[in-house]
């Protein structure tokens, strides 16, 4: 029987997001492909350090049990299988239950996302992520971080920006192109009952929300079960633009544990208390504040990224 993906949350992860490939990348950039291949072979048994998405991926995989697999993580790599061997050794070393991989040797791997039903692709290659977003695939670029994961802690805390991440950039466009805060707030008040369209990470969050509901049902049946996932919304919106957020999430039946309607307060000021294992935002300025301290993912989507300078 074929392995079924349609009933699972599938995440496609590049080796550059899962592990620290900064040294290998340096070899690739400075000495080109042959030297890179040689370097990876010579260091095959030298275990790679953890990357930006490691804390998220490890905890998501830990939600799976023998009876029920809710999450599938697939390595989606622009390496070839030969150099990819080092990555598989690291997967085994850290005890990650990842067994499936697609290697595309120098190509952009996002085009296989549909084939594996992936609702998120995480990569340390900005050009790959931008191209994926251009073709409407949900993808995020992991930013360098000094974060050190505390693996004794089993809870998984996710934090999401709202506009341009969970929902589309329609309201953001009113803000950016419609004359600023006051016209934007008026627009949002007038459209408070109007459902917002789906953004790049809508499906991912919806699936996370379904897993949360499953965890709550399990906890109700057996109070020794500890639900692991917590979700926070962290948005620059504040009243009166909050109402549309709440009504939209309610309509889509998405549950949120914590919500920060910040209205210009620095996101890092609340996130350093919440301590996310992953934070998603479409605006670089918000990501840059947080990325050093916590694993952060830039979604280069929509009007917020129209005139963005090339990063990195
Ligand atoms: Mg946003």
TrEMBL record:
Signal peptide: none annotated. One of its GO terms (cellular component) is cytoplasm. GO terms for molecular function: 5'-nucleotidase activity; magnesium ion binding; nucleotide binding. One of its GO terms (biological process) is nucleotide metabolic process. PANTHER family: CYTOSOLIC 5'-NUCLEOTIDASE 1 FAMILY MEMBER (PTHR31367), CYTOSOLIC 5'-NUCLEOTIDASE 1A (PTHR31367:SF5). This is 5'-nucleotidase. It comes from Listeria grandensis FSL F6-0971.
């Amino acid at each position: 029987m074929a392995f079924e993906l349609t009933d699972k949350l599938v995440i496609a992860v590049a080796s550059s997001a899962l592990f620290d490939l900064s040294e290998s990348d340096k070899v690739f950039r400075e000495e080109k492909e042959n030297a890179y291949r040689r370097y990876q072979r010579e260091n095959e048994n030298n275990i790679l350090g953890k990357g930006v998405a490691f804390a998220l991926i490890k905890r998501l995989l830990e939600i799976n049990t023998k009876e029920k697999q809710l999450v599938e993580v697939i390595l989606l790599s622009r390496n070839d299988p030969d150099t990819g061997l080092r990555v598989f050794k690291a997967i085994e070393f850290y005890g990650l239950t990842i067994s499936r991989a697609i290697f595309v040797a120098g190509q952009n791997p996002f085009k296989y996302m549909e084939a594996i039903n992936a609702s998120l692709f995480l990569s340390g290659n900005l050009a790959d992520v931008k191209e994926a977003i251009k073709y409407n695939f949900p993808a995020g670029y992991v930013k360098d971080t000094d974060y050190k994961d505390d693996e004794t802690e089993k809870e998984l805390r996710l934090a999401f920006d709202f506009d341009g991440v969970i929902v589309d950039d329609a309201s953001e466009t009113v803000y950016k192109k419609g004359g600023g805060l006051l016209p934007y707030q008026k627009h949002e008040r007038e459209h408070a009952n109007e459902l917002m369209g789906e953004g790049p990470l809508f499906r991912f969050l919806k699936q996370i929300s379904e897993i949360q509901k499953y965890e709550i049902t399990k906890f109700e049946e057996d109070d020794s079960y500890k639900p692991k996932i917590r979700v926070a919304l962290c948005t620059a919106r504040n009243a009166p633009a909050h109402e549309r957020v709440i009504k939209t999430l309610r309509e889509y039946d998405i549950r949120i544990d914590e919500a920060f309607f910040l209205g210009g307060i620095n996101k890092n000021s609340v996130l350093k208390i919440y301590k996310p294992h992953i934070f998603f935002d479409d605006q670089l300025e918000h990501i840059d504040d947080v990325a050093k301290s916590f694993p952060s993912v830039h979604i280069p989507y929509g009007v917020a990224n129209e005139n963005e300078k090339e990063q990195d």
